[in-house]
Every structure is written in C-alpha cells, then in structure tokens.
Amino acid sequence: MLAVLGFVAVILLLVLVMTKKMSPTAALIGVPVVVGVIACFFIEGEDGTINVLENVKALGGYITGSSGIGSVAATGVMFIFSILFFGVLTDAGTFRPIIRAILRLIGTSPVKIAIGSAALAMLVHLDGSGAVTFLICVPALIPIYDAVGMRRTTLATVVALAAGVMNILPWGGPTIRAATAMNIDVIEFFMPLCIPVICGLISVFLIAGLLGKREAMRMQKENGGAATIGLILSLNDEELSEEERSLLRPKLFLVNVGLIFLAIVALLFSGFAPAVIFMIAFVLAMAINYPHPDQQGERVNAHAKEALMMCSVLFAAGAFTGIMKGTGMISEMANALVSVIPASLGKFFPVIVGVLGMPASLLFDPDSFYYGILPVLSSTAEGLGTSGLDVARAAVLGQMTTGFPVSPLTASTFLLIGLAGVELGEHQKKTIPLAFLVTIIMLLISLLIGAIHI
Question: Is the pTM of this model over 0.85?
Fold first, then answer.
C-alpha cells in the first residue's frame, strides 16, 4: 500500500504543478502531508504493529530532519545570498558591458546563443556540480536572453540538458554511486559509455540549435524585430529609468568582474561550502558598490521577494523528500518496480532499466536509487541471466543524470528555475521530453557498440 501511495503522491504532484492547479510550494507541501497521513495507517513498527498516532507525530520529524528540510538548508542559504549577490551586481550594471561585447561577437542569432549556452554549461560542469554550473551559467546568460527576446525557459532547458549529460562523467555523483554500488573502479565502469556520452553531448548541441531556431521563428512571427530591438536596448542606457541609472557603477566594472571571478574560483577550488562563499561575496559586493546603510537596505529589499519565493519552494521540496523517505514510500516503490518485471523479459532487463532511468529521477533521489534500488536490480538481472553491470550502466544514462535538473527531489532543480525565473511546471513540460530523448539516444548507441549487452 505504501508503494501505491508513493506513486500517487508523485503523479499527483506532477499533475498539479504542470497543469498549474496549485503552486509548486503548495503542492510540494500539501501532497506529501496528505498522503503521509494516509500512509500512517499502514506503517508498521519494529514489533509489527501499527500505531497511527505515533506515525502521525513522526511526520514532523521527517519534514525537518536530515532527509527533509535539513538536507536543503545549506542550499537555501546559498540560494538567498547568490540571488542577492548577482542582484546587486546587476543593479550596478556589471553585466551590461559584457552583454554588449558578446552581442557584438555573436550578433543576436538565437541559434548561436543557444548553442553557446550549451557549450558554456558543459565546460562549467566539468567540476561535476549542478549547483555550481547553474550559479555560474544562468546569471551570466539571462541578460543576453532578455536582451534578444529569447524565453528563459529555453535557457533553463539547454543548460539542464548540457549539465545532465555531463553528470555521467566519472566524477559525477550518479556514476560514482553506481560504480561504488557495483564494487568496480569508476573509470572502468565509465569507459564503455564514453562514446555514448559524446553522442549525447552532440545531440544536446543539435537540440540547442533547434530550440534556438524555434526561438528565432517565434520572435519573427510575434514582433518581427525583437532581436534587433533587444540589441539596441542592450547597447544604450537611455531606456533605463532615472533610479536605475543612479544605481549604475561603471567605474567599478573591473572591480566587480574581479569579484565574480574570485567567487567562481572559490566555488571550484576553495573547498568552502557555496553558501559561505556567496555570503562573503554578497557582503563585499554591497560594501564596494553601495556603502551607505540606506542603500544597502534598499538593495536587499529589491531582491528579497525573489529570494524568499524561491527558497520557499526549495524548503517545500525538502518537506516532500523527507516524508517520502521517512514513511518508507520510496523503498516500497522500488520493491514494487522490481517485482513487476517478468522473468521472460530478463534478456532485455538493461534496456528496461535504461528506458525507465530518466523518468525514475522523478521518483527516487540518487542515494536511494544507487545504494538501495540498483543492488536489487543488478541482483535480479543476474538471476535472470543478464549482467548486473550492464543494468548499472544503463541506469546511469538517465537516473539523476539527464534527469536531475527536472526532478523535484533535487535542490539543483529549484536552484536552476529560481535563477532563471521560470516555473517548475513549465520547465518540466519543456525539458522532460528532450531529456528522455537524449537518454534514449545514448542507450541506443550503447546497445549498437556493445557498451551495454542484451
């Protein structure tokens, strides 16, 4: 019954968010709480009995515990100060000269911008951190997308696809977890997947180009000159209000760029938590650009609404994850999925896992899947006469790789949509089909070259 309730919770959440029947914050809190209360009538204690009252009392702990809000608390702090940091630098006009230079270099071609976005995200994601990738890429690219009239949902999709495929690299979290679960060296585990991953990256570039072409056609159809108008506006400050012009700090451009560079270097190499880095970076940006306390208060107030709204979604996601894990619904869902696969399909077990891997990112967090579910799947495969290693390689092509930037179970998803300023439902509707397509492409290539056997 817990498995059924788990599937109901996930499906109901997706439906409510994608159809905009509820806000993401309300759905992420309301759905698991209601389903969690129902689950309390089916959760057995260590002695085999069901104590509904005690189970209900435990829900609060699941929400605030290490698997719930506790797991996203540090990300929430980072969220607040990264938004404030980039907001202050945007107010100071730091990105305007950069936009001018980039637009002069590549023009206003949406195709070039989309492909360039994918390349930047791939480069930055070499460190394997989705949060760092989104923090570096999205704030830098948003002004360009806004300047030429491209939709931010396209930016979120392109960056998500690029980061998702790059997450399969040997130092990516899912690949390390999969290799550890299979007790094999991570390089040995990854090498057969090298060509499929390269093909996946190529497919991301092609998709980015197609999305850029679609953006160009939309802008041409809607207003015929959005890109040209955006370029003119981005090269002049006359369109700014008097208040906005008073906030510009052109003489501090090099100082602010240096501050951004130092923050990025610290994110990549310092070893400090991103939250700490952005707290310090925000204080420095504020002190340098707006030293007067009144100015500082105004800048915080100007960006507080955005920071609060996105953090509320992030903490709501922590509540969802905490209840799903704490009540045991996630583990029961895993057992249910394994039990429904008939022995007659044993030969195709890796293919089945590969197809389901990306959608499974919406159901299982990486630790639950790779340390809890994958060993069961691989053992089942061995029992059906199939290699468990092939199952693991098939799984890593989608589960929390291409799937992590759309999953409500990862903080990175909310960081991405928060920085991009898009809704979760819109992002999922646009990105999930494309992420699934990239996964299938890599799976087919893996089968063709023998990286995965059936």
Answer: no
pLDDT of the residue at 236? 56
Q: How far apart are CA 323 and CA 314, in angstroms?
A: 15
Residue range 416-438, pLDDT digits in tens: 998 898 988 899 999 999 999 99
Give the 3-state DSSP-derived string for 74-123, with helices as H, strands as E and coil as C: HHHHHHHHHHHHHHHHHHCCCHHHHHHHHHHHHCCCHHHHHHHHHHHHHH
